[in-house]
Design goal:
The protein is an alpha+beta fold and 159 residues long. The chain has a single domain, classed as Jelly Rolls (Sandwich). The chain is built from 2 helices and 8 strands. A hairpin with a 5-residue loop joins strand 4 and strand 5.
């Protein structure tokens, strides 16, 4: 199974690395800017830094209402990670699912607009194996189709 997945990944990379003219069909993630989301992200980073976490990866991302945005991250066995997703404040629903390399769901979080910090989903995770994980945030907004989202992966550096 892993050999098949590895082969599939290799083929995808090979196809994506073909000529520049063929790259016009490649889907690229566009960043977005939301001052309120950036302010929330800065606050979360400060709080988690005081708890000994350091930012490993972070990105703003343009999202479409009701569609998952897959994020693939390499995680190290036994390390303590904190994942944070911040969605548009006007969305009604926010969900994050995380899957391990074997496509087994290992985390599921769901929040609603009215919840305290409803547009922020944050959870800790310590992987049992060093492998890639896929994180799939989604938000639902009845008034907007194009949304801004922000993801952060932090790692515990102090004990």
């Amino acid at each position: 199974m892993k050999n098949l997945i590895t082969l599939s990944c290799f083929l995808v990379l090979a196809l994506c690395s073909r000529s520049a003219s063929a790259q016009n069909n490649v889907i690229r993630q566009n960043p977005c800017s939301s001052p309120s989301i950036l302010a929330q992200a800065d606050s979360v980073k400060k709080i988690l830094a005081k708890q000994g976490f350091e930012v490993v990866k972070e990105a703003s991302m343009q999202m479409e209402s009701e569609y998952e945005m897959p994020v693939i991250v390499p995680l190290t066995q036994g390390s303590w990670y904190q994942f944070v997703f911040i969605g548009d404040m006007s969305s009604k629903l926010y969900e994050v699912r995380m899957y391990d390399w074997n496509e087994k769901q290992v985390v599921y979080q769901k929040k609603y607009w009215g919840d305290v910090d409803g547009n922020v989903i944050s959870y800790s995770y310590i992987p049992q194996f060093s492998e890639y994980h896929m994180i799939k945030p989604v938000q639902v907004n009845k008034k907007k189709k194009e949304l801004c989202g922000y993801v952060m992966l932090l790692k515990k550096t102090e004990q």
